[in-house]
Amino acid sequence: MPLRLLPSTLVDRIAAGEVVERPAAALKEIVENALDAGATRVEIIIDGGGRRLMRVTDDGIGMSAEELALAVERHATSKLDSEDLLAIHTLGFRGEALPSIGAVARLAVTSRPKGSDSAHEIRVEGGVKSPVRPAALGFGTRVEVRDLFFATPARLKFLKSERAETAAAVDTVKRLALARPEVGFTLVTDDRAPITWPARTRDAAGQRARIADVLGAEAGGNALDVEGIREGARLSGLAGLPTYSKANSLSQYLFVNGRPVRDKVLIGAIRAAYADLLPSDRHPVTALFLDLDPREVDVNVHPAKTEVRFRDAGNIRALIVRTLTDALTAGAPRTASTAADRLAQFARPDLATDYRPEPRPGTYDWTRSWAAPEGMVDTRAPGLNEAPARFDFDAPVHSPGGGLGLALAPGADARANAAPAAPEALERPLGAARAQLHETYIIAQTRDGVVVIDQHAAHERIVYEKLKAAMARDGLARQMLLVPLVVELDPSEAARLSERAEALEKLGLVIEPFGPGALLVREVPALLGDADISALVRELAEHAAEWDDALPLERRLLHIAATMACHGSVRAGRRLRVEEMNALLREMEETPNAAQCNHGRPTFVTLALADIERLFARR
Q: Which of 69, 140, 432, 585 has its CA 20 to 30 A from that of 40?
């Protein structure tokens, strides 16, 4: 077949395959045009997932009749004032969107420039352009796309369901709305009520308000402000708490010079910043805005302009990792506020108002309660001791409190008054310890609420951070075993762990082969105290096959340190004295990342007094 030039209609349809892969991609191009035109208000209507109809109306500068005719020509744009593609300050610049959309759909563009007495319209159907004609419209531009891909029906079978396409289009609008908080947006779809996001200011307060508008108040309330500068690049926005995470990365909103992007460098940097705080299958919620000299980033690397290339990617990665790490470790530990909302779901007002306990014969044994009455404590038991206290349900009712129908001698909560909380402790972020439940959870009281702490998860984070700090400082202190410990293992596991003896030695665990399928442990990290070393070595051996040799040594050491911290921390089921519990709380307040353990689980849950009152229908 001889060489030939393709007809312009076919060229436009080929180009449309790159630019308009689905309705959301076409919508993105149209809304970006509206924002580049200086719009302060954008209205978007979507029907049938965008396949049947997409209409975008803005109050931008508008176009004259002559500009309308040029707007549907390939590579016609008003956004480049020079030939320098490294100094791009607009969202669009290729001049391909409208002709590409018109090649595969029925496109109508109506516009009226400010100061003009009349509006004009041009239509393009399957690449065939109609003459410009007069129309009726206020100041601004309206772009209407109907029957997307009618000219290329084969593309229709690659589209997803209407619901999925609508969700993709809504996500596109969300990202553009986050990028431009000073612009008001109205979004109308065929499956939900209209959404309106009012215009906000361009400062940090307006940015946070827009994030709360788009992502919800829950996301805004469970995020931290981030701000950082490094070698001319500036990072700002919000980073979600580690305990407020998602199962995928779709809730990571990233912007470079106001442009929504999905860049591997940025996503990898976020993952690195949260590496010690989240399990591998969870992803943080972020809305990060990166601003830098346009000449330091190339946006002309993908037709859809969703990918960028940085001149100094290492600097950008370092900026993101350091800024996020500083924000996550600064201040008092915090966990996501969604726990109280989940707890409130268990409240059953119908049962709370209708339930009446039936009297039971005999006695009720309180010996398993942590709140033993004062004066009846068994001093042989350690920690918060338990003592028998029997209540006779058949005894005559004695009501010294004014006829409330309760036998009040002695009170079941008398232990709470035995060691009243110090007023200064109540002002601390994690409050004062008041009790231990199920020998696992510490109950602490603050000035305006209650904190429930998982003692094992909390101490695990403390030990892990101490291990990291010791590694970074001068290495871990070791404790030589008086009698070396022999640990029997599967021969293959013993061989794998022996190969990593040098890395383990950096963490204070000194091992050596001791015949087939056995290891001899000579020294252990002093921080682990009375930990079960045999169990630790066996778990390390099980996970040795999963350690990726391609990872940096530091990352592999941190994986080992996390396992050590788990074995070296206070276990669930251990009783603690009040002094020990308070010491743990104070250490948590001084430890970075104390709001979550090494596996990403929360170490404590805060219940405000208002949340508790809602559980009991008091507000």
A: 69
> Is the predicted pLDDT of residue 415 greater than 70, yes or no?
no
Q: Are strands 259-261 and 432-437 parallel, antiparallel or unpaired?
A: unpaired
Q: Please report which helix (H) or strand (E) contains residue 267, including its range.
A: helix 264-273
**Cα angle for residues 549, 551, 553 (degrees, 5° grid):** 90
Residue 374 clears pLDDT 80, i.e. is over it: no
| pLDDT recorded at residue 375 | 42
Residue 446 near residue 431 (C-beta atoms within 8 A): yes
> Which residues on neighbouring strands pair with residue 43, listed in sequence order?
57, 186
Q: How far apart are CA 387 and CA 382, in angstroms?
A: 12
Q: DSSP label at 422?
A: P
Work out the burial of residue 501: count CB atoms within 10 Å of its CB; fewer than 13 is exposed, 13-18 middle, 19 or more buried: middle
Q: What is the pLDDT of residues 282-333, one digit of tens each?
A: 899 999 999 999 889 988 776 667 788 999 999 999 999 999 999 998 866 7
The length of the chain in residues reads 619
Q: Is the peptide bond before 400 cis (omega within 30 degrees of 0)?
A: no
Crossing angle of helices 455-473 and 553-568, rounded to 10°? 140
Contact 249, 267 (CB under 8 A): yes
| Highest mean pLDDT of the ranges 84-88, 165-169, 351-355 | 165-169
The two tokens of residue 34 are 């509206």
The CA distance from 331 to 591, in Å, is: 10
| Helix (DSSP H) and strand (DSSP E) numbers for the chain | 19, 27
Taking the C-alpha atoms of residue 562 and residue 555, their distance in angstroms, rounded to an integer, is: 11
Cα dist. 518→68, 502, 511, 544 in Å? 80, 17, 10, 15
16: confidence class by pLDDT, cuts 50, 70, 90: low
Decide if 339 contacts 604 (C-beta within 8 A): no
DSSP3 helix / strand / coil % (the chain, rounded to 5): 35, 25, 40
Kindly state the DSSP code that residue 596 receives in the 8-state scheme. B
Half-sphere exposure of 615 (CA within 13 A, CB side): 15
Structure tokens at 245: 């995470």
Closest CA to 578 of 411, 380, 370, 368: 370
Alpha-carbon span 369 to 124, nearest angstrom: 78
Task: Identify the helix (H) or strand (E) that includes residue 237.
Answer: strand 233-240
Alpha helices in 306-404 (DSSP H): 313-329, 338-344, 349-354
pLDDT attached to residue 546: 63
Give the integer Cα–Cα distance in Å for 151 and 106: 9
Task: Name the token pair of 273.
Answer: 């910043």
Find out whether 152 and 135 touch, Cβ atoms under 8 Å.
Answer: no
